[in-house]
Task: structure prediction
Amino acid sequence: LAQPDLIDKLHFAVTIGEAVLIEDMGETTDPVIAPLVSMRYFKKGGIEHVQIGLKAVEVHKHFRLFLQTKLPNPRLAPELQACVTLLAFMITPASLEAQLLHILIAKDRPDLSAQHEKWMSTLSAHELQLKVKEDNILDSLATSEGGAILEDTAAVKSLTESKALWREIGNAKGAAHQAEAQIRQLRDAYRPAAAFARTLYFCVVELYQLDSMYAHSLAWFKEHFCGSIACTQEVHGTAVADMTSWNRALRMHLQLQVCQRVSRGISQTKGHRHVFALQLCHSVLSADGSLDPHEWRHFVTRGALAASPSSPVANPAPDWLSDRVWGNVVRLAQLPFAQACDFLSHFGANASAYRPFYEHMEPHTAFHLLPKPPAEWSPFRKLLLLHALRFDKCVPGVGVLIAQMPEFFGPSLLPLLEASDMGQTFQDAFDDSSASTPIVCILSPGSDPVDGILELAKAVSDEEPTSISLGQGQGAICLQLLAQVSVKGGWAIVMNCHLGESFMPQLEKFVSELKHRPRSTSANGGSVEDITRSGSGVTAALPLHPSFRLWMTSMPSPKFPISVLHVSTKFISEASGSTIQSSMASALTAVYSTPELSDPADVDMTAKPKMLRKQLFVLCFLHALLCVRRKFGALGYNMPYDFSVSDLQASALTLQDMHSSNELRMEGVTYMLAEVIYGGHVSDNKDRRFVLTEVNEVLAAREGVAFNVGGDKYMMPSDASGMLDSLEMTLKFVRENWPQEDDAAIFGLHAHADLVVQQRAATQLLEPFSSQLRRTSSIVQLQQQGASPAEASIADPLRDMVDEICGRLPAELDDCPPLHTTPMSNLLCQETRRFNKLLGTVRTSMEHLGLALQGFVVMSAELTEVSSALMSGRLPDVWTKCSYPSLKTPIAFIDDLLRRVDFFRGWIERGQPEAFWLPAFFFPVGLFAATIQAFVQRCGNVAIDDVVFVFHVLNERPPQPPQDGIIVYGMYLEGARIDGATGLLADPLPKQPLAPLPELWLEPITKGDKPSRASDYACPLYKTAHRRGVLSTTGHSTNFVYNLELPSDQPARYWIGRVLRRL
Result:
């Protein structure tokens, strides 16, 4: 498609009737070839024509069009699928294993392989000769007269030669069969290594589903497979002596080589390295027959398909075991292996024996504390128990699972899960590259790898790299620069490829030509005259200098050419520092190496004023604090923000400019940081409030005083220590005096924030596998693919779930009266309509899915999505489109829906309730608005805008409902609680991050009559724990409900960013 003469070639081929193959197609068709794909032909003079570009050409009847794509799983539009015939040339596991076995034998036993190929070639040649002889004989028989065949000397000669050839073929077949038997025996001996290599390859390919930048080719994998064979031969010789040891050595070496390079290019902060490790673990154990598919599905879906027990089982230890965890145990007990040992009864009778394991700080290392029978379970079944009791430890539990199976994975897989040394990563990527093998750096928010590339260039090359950043109008300049550098030698850095989507086809063509270009032998490369005039096509004939290296940086983008990714070595650049100490070190290095701030030769700051040095140190801490807080997800910020080194350097230069002008005013510095530099990224009001609070507090730090609320863990060095005089001294102070692991309090978060982060990491770990189930485990697919009985039996729990949901759905709510005279009755009518629509949608989808499972209706795409969602434990899209926000599994969602419907049914039948269950509402803000409207109607002379709420925490409900306002309940505090004795906000109790909020009386009152309570904290109320939503015109997230002013004896800054209220 990128060829400049594409239209001319199409005109020629369509006219004379030649076949055209267009390679590297995407998921959409180019407008130029769209008329050919959709066959939009028209007749002109009785002859079919087609419009290609600006010209209509005659269509020859023999013209054929073939489209090829390298995308592993293209999502083609239905209108495109209707126009073409789809052929999947994806390699199958069996054929890949056969190819790898052939490579193994050819590399390790070339004598037998050559002998086998020789005999096969000989047999083929003999068969061809025999066919010629047979044809000659038949011709002689056909032309002989009177049956005088024996008098025909030519025919007799052919018969004699055929007889001799037949004997020769017989002897050759015997030798070939003997060689074939040897090859077959070798194949069986090598099969374990080839089977593992096949499994490893498909695990690598599956990474593409996580991110389009994680694309790897089969040719790349075979290259490393051949390299591992060679290395194994060097160390262990051929496999003749000990096949088992040799196969294991090859397997371990291949795993190390491939996993090192794969993990270098996938994200650690997103948990993708653990996903890859778990995917490999699952595939290897499944291939070995050591993993039951039902147990794996239970692990991935968190027991969403587990059958409920015939009768409810009471929680045996409610004092320390929450009902949610007990529900996990009950679902685990429904698995066959748990039923075989009557695990549920055992747990109920011996619950106290499980408490030490449950309360252990690192339960994934304390399986020895478990009683029997779990103590004797397999490593994966122990992981299932950890999954049920301590879901937050699933991620480290995967590492323990791998460590407990050295016979499968060896010692090389675990280190790949740890953080990478970026300096070594740059070097490794360079070592794997060549003049024709580019290097792709995958960017992440807050990262900038260019400085690392430049440092590496200084170490290994005499020339400074040439760089260009893509953007509007930079394509032609970039192409000319690449042509020049590729001929003369040196490094070229093409930055921000995701910003030059229109240039990607030309870049793809340039990269594809690299391996075909002649190698330059002159020291200074060559000339690139007339490159600008000749265009991009000239590069194919230009000599390629051996020192040329092409570096490309790009954010993850589906538009990045997959063919470039296939031939490149890849690594990911992530913002360094998951802790304050490591992020502080990166921030200090960035500031001290900024040319405008320090001398890059000695990185010395002694010439700077002491006050400036202190404030730069404080600024680095602020930057580290804001960046590391992102790891807490929704607890950290309502929206994700890309704070980067550029923000830090801009802030440092602002400080220096104010010092230079002798007009240092902290108010101005605070405004620039909180509102412009860092605050410019922040779009959510609550996040902006937190950033402003942190900037004010951190910038007020003094020497010898700890930052924030971290006790004495994060001290600022004093002037006398001299620790701020140089980068080396400052880094030494941070390493020796600051902790390696951070307390959540330093971020202003509650003690359970780490627990929430760990649970989120575990959810992120399992989500890709849940998505995989949605793609591959629909009932129709299983039946079409001839699935095994164990896999096909998945239909049974799905059918049971559908029947359960259909049987439990209540009738729709009664319609409201035609006249609505009060704000509350209007609100009730609106909520009734919403719930009736949701009930109808759920009921219709379940009835249709039930019929489809029985074969009475076609399993449409919508029903396939519904079934896949139910099997993976998430809500179907057709439900969420008309539902309230929910993070629950389907069965838990139905339970919650029944409670909500019952609440409103009671309202309709018995009248307005004394207290309102706030989470029951689709639109909770509507309840607050209706309360204010009712108050205004009663008062008569009050404007709606003058009415506000006063929030009263109730220890017990009054005997009569209040005349003004409403009583609400059903809310929770995350990271805080209401102290029963004082009625004030307090820190949460141990292992209880969520605390129920007592009933609240929302008393409407005019602004002038509102009492002054300066110590109250305006606590944000959200619909779900995922505070992120779409920003409305008010500046609030659509997930945001209201600010509830709760009594507190702590200043507001203590709770800002710490408390999450949710329904």
In short: The CA atoms of residues 5 and 278 lie 48 Å apart. The mean pLDDT is 82. The first strand starts at residue 19 and ends at 22. Residues 272-417 form one domain.
